[in-house]
């Protein structure tokens, strides 16, 4: 007797006996014992009888083992990268090993209904509602398999649910204001608040990195349109969504912005020009309501917008690129050293006033000396100082020499003849 061409030993020696009704006929019996496990399922056993009377001197009889066993399962197709909603599909297979064949049951945690009775669970395409814990189990007449599970996490790009509180918010000058942005997404999105601007060489200004933007002290710099941006990353790729713009309207007394622009070499809140050149001093003022009085003051003089006197001229205020902001400009022709001073812009509307200065510096001949000329002058000064020191030394020498000569000419009375 052999199994897979390997001989199997019987549990007892072979027995030979005659047939009860025919003593001349002998019957031989051999018994083997084989463990019934699933690894032997389908194995072919062959019993080989040897005798001289057989035509081939042997006769073989075969039998195939049919081992019944409970199912075991394994999962195939579990995702190795992020699944993105609306883009990716998923096929999960619950492969069972059983005899007799087992039935498959797919279930989803938290739900009573069966997800699938097939070997394969197909999601084409996946959606956020498909996320969850899935289990599969196999059963046949022998028993039931262990449960295998897989957790599905479906990613999706951000979506802004609300941004506000309103499309337009009005805030008094120097009061607090707040905006709230609510977005959904997986992974959880991060937030950024930006303000649309038309200056400083860039179209947006970052204002916050939280879902809630709080402005503790509103000034006219904060007036304008704001956007909330929600961002996450799926498989290394950025997904960003932007809200509709939200406007912040600032009302209150005038405010002269502390960032200025002027002609003639600006440095902070000062303007530098050469003597004899024209100077232009400009400041931006914001106000809502619009300013009703705009004037420049220095010394005992005051010039209203649109007026002039002598070498001084004040333009009418013009609209700046920012809403409710205006440009106020003072021109000074043929600037002289006596024009060096602070010039104050005074602005008034029905809610209050503001006053801010910009300084003018007039550079004379020696204040604009080139580096080479300056070194030349320093050399001359050093030479003059050296000559002065030499002269002092010569004077000291001359005085001492004269004293020596006077002593040599004096003869004491005891030495005279």
From TrEMBL:
Q: Where does the record place the Ig-like domain?
A: 71-151, 158-242
Give me the segments passing through the membrane.
376-399
A single Gene Ontology MF term assigned here is: cell adhesion molecule binding
Q: Which SMART domains match?
A: IG, IGc2
| CDD domains on file | Ig
Disordered: annotated segments: 1-24
Q: Name one Pfam family in it.
A: I-set
GO CC annotations on file: cell-cell junction; plasma membrane
Query: Where does the record place Polar residues bias?
Result: 12-24
Q: How does it sit in the membrane?
A: Single-pass type I membrane protein
UniProtKB keywords: Disulfide bond, Glycoprotein, Immunoglobulin domain, Membrane, Transmembrane, Transmembrane helix
**InterPro entries the record matches:** Cell_adhesion_signaling (IPR051275), Ig-like_dom (IPR007110), Ig-like_dom_sf (IPR036179), Ig-like_fold (IPR013783), Ig_I-set (IPR013098), Ig_sub (IPR003599), Ig_sub2 (IPR003598)
Q: Which PANTHER family did the record assign?
A: IRREGULAR CHIASM C-ROUGHEST PROTEIN-LIKE PROTEIN (PTHR11640:SF154), NEPHRIN (PTHR11640)
Kindly provide the name given to this protein in its UniProt entry: Ig-like domain-containing protein
The species is: Anopheles maculatus
């Amino acid at each position: 007797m052999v199994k897979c061409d390997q001989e199997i030993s019987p549990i007892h020696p072979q027995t030979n006996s005659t047939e009860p009704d025919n003593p001349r006929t002998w019957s031989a019996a051999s018994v083997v014992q084989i463990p019934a496990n699933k690894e032997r399922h389908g194995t072919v056993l062959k019993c080989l009888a040897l005798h001289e009377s057989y035509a081939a001197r042997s006769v073989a009889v075969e039998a195939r083992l049919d081992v019944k066993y409970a199912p075991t399962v394994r999962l195939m197709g579990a995702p190795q990268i992020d699944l993105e909603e609306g883009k990716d599909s998923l096929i999960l297979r619950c492969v069972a090993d059983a005899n007799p064949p087992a039935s498959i049951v797919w279930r989803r945690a938290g739900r009573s209904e069966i997800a699938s009775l097939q070997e394969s669970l197909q999601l084409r395409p996946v959606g956020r509602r498909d996320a969850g814990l899935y289990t599969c189990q196999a059963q046949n007449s022998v028993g039931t398999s262990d449960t295998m599970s897989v957790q599905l996490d479906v990613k999706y790009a951000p979506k802004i649910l609300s941004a506000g509180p309103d499309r337009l918010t009005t805030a008094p000058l120097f009061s607090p204001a707040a905006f709230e942005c609510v977005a959904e997404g997986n992974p959880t999105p991060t937030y950024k608040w930006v303000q649309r601007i038309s200056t400083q060489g860039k179209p947006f200004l970052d204002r916050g990195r939280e879902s809630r933007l709080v402005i503790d002290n509103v000034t006219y710099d904060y007036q304008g349109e704001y956007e909330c941006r929600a961002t996450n990353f799926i498989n290394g790729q950025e997904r960003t969504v932007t809200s509709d713009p939200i406007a912040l309207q600032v009302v209150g007394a005038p405010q002269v912005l502390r960032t200025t622009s002027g002609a003639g070499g600006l440095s902070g809140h000062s303007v530098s020009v050469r003597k004899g050149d024209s100077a232009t001093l400009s400041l931006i003022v914001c106000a809502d309501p619009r300013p009703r009085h705009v004037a420049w003051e220095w010394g005992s003089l005051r010039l209203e917008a649109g007026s002039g006197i002598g070498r001084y001229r004040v333009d009418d205020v013009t609209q700046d690129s920012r809403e409710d902001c205006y440009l106020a400009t003072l021109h000074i022709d043929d600037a002289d050293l006596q024009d060096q001073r602070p010039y104050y812009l005074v602005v008034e509307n029905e809610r209050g006033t503001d006053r801010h200065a910009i300084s003018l510096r007039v550079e004379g001949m020696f204040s604009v000396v080139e580096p080479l000329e300056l070194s030349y002058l320093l050399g001359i000064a050093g030479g003059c100082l050296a000559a002065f020191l030499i002269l002092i030394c010569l004077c000291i020498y001359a005085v001492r020499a004269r004293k020596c000569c006077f002593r040599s000419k004096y003869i004491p009375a005891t030495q005279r003849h």
